[in-house]
Amino acid sequence: SWQWSTGAFGQNNANQLGGVNFYAWDENGPPLYYFDDIIFDGGGPPPQEPDIVVTPTSLTESLYAGTTSDQVLNIENIGDADLIYDLSIEYITSFKSTPIQPTEITINPGDLSIAPDYVPSGINPPPSDDVILNYDGDNYTAVGLTNGGQFEVAAMFPSSMVAQYSGMELSTVDVYINDAPSATKLKIYGQGTPNTPGTLLYDQDFTPVAESWNTITLTTPVAITGGDIWVCYWIDQPTAGTFPAGADAGPAVLNGDWLSMSGGAWQRLSDLGLDYNWNIRATLTGEPMELWLSVDPISGTVTPGNNTDITVTFDATNLTPGASYNANIIVNSNDPDEPTITVPVLLGILVGIDEFDKIAVLIYPNPVNDILNVKADIKINKLRIQNLAGQLIYNNQINDKSCQVNTSDLQSGMYFIQIETDKGIITERIIVE
Question: Who wins on pLDDT, 104 or 66?
Fold first, then answer.
């Protein structure tokens, strides 16, 4: 039998405060065992961690074409360890969904095998005048799962590399396949965290030629928006002893050797003892867009209890009057609870008086809480309203010089209203209370 008791600190034959005494005895005899002052320990203080706060949570600006302006984004560390952050810009045309959350499945070094006595037999893709994103050299070896199974390999191209190509399109991908798997699929992911891809933007089945470079032409090219882009392919390797995924001779370059098994966490091939890069090359075509947003600095460290200001510059030098432009500022950090924070940005380009032959437009009341009146001295063809995330929340054919919009169902905040006429589009800001 067992009995436990507690007592106050310092009393005779009693345990300390918060402790427990255990006794064991025969049914009819004295105690045989005695454990004194057992203390329940909570495991010590919690680990020190950074805690990020970013303000404001969104940015909006309206400028005349050919002008610039600056705003401030503040990054604060309310935690008790240094906050390390970096920023990137993603130009968007539609609202983006959240990153995919991986499972906890990981790959161990013993799960991977290198093709023995490997002799490369493929010819590299021909040189191109287009932009090629890649980290790899010539094919050198091939990798497979020791016991077969499904896995993905990827090269991640960060914003710092691809932002200059915003507006171009990812049109083809070249990969080296050694042993033909039973199924393969090209996958393109968008901005996520530095270690995890975000939204699946595109996938396409393809049937590769073994022991060869394979060019996959995307049925629908993927727009380069300036954020991180993950170029991957998924493999179903049916048996052990095959080695489908081609790699170069190394050494591994940061972001050139990502892999994941069965939808699990993403890991680097080099962390598993294999110092190679995947043979993955992405081709971009088209012309880059005019970049209208920048941040300074793009990275830094904030000590506990302090904050830093980021200068956000809007540049409408070559933008179109009447148009609106959307982007996200992506804030990555070592905050374990919020490793990625997205700040939506909206820029509207105003129309000067002389740009549309002195068109008179009246919008009232502004701010508005129920009915917004819009009047012009020429016919209004269409009326559109966008929120700060770039979502179109009102779009209506007018065909009159005046109209009313019921705003009572809209959340309080700032919006952009676009008034389309035969002479162009006029963009203005409104406040809904």
Answer: 66
Q: How many residues does the chain have?
A: 433
* Residue 121 and residue 212 in contact, taking contact as beta carbons nearer than 8 Å: yes
Nearest-Å Rg of the Cα atoms of the chain is 30
50-54, 145-149, 159-163: which is most confident: 50-54
Q: In this structure, what token pair is assigned to residue 388? A: 């700060």
Q: Provide the pLDDT for residue 375.
A: 85
- Cβ proximity of 252 and 270 under 8 Å: yes
Of 131-135, 167-171, 371-375, which range is least confident? 371-375
Q: Are 376 and 401 in contact (CB under 8 A)?
A: yes
Q: What's the CA gap between 349 and 316, in Å, rounded? A: 7
Spatial CA neighbour of 401 closest among 360, 353, 350: 360
Mapped onto helix, strand or coil, the DSSP state of residue 160 is helix
Q: What is the pLDDT of residue 91?
A: 86
Residue in the block written with tokens 């401030």: 72
Name the one residue in this structure whose structure tokens are 């830093």.
308
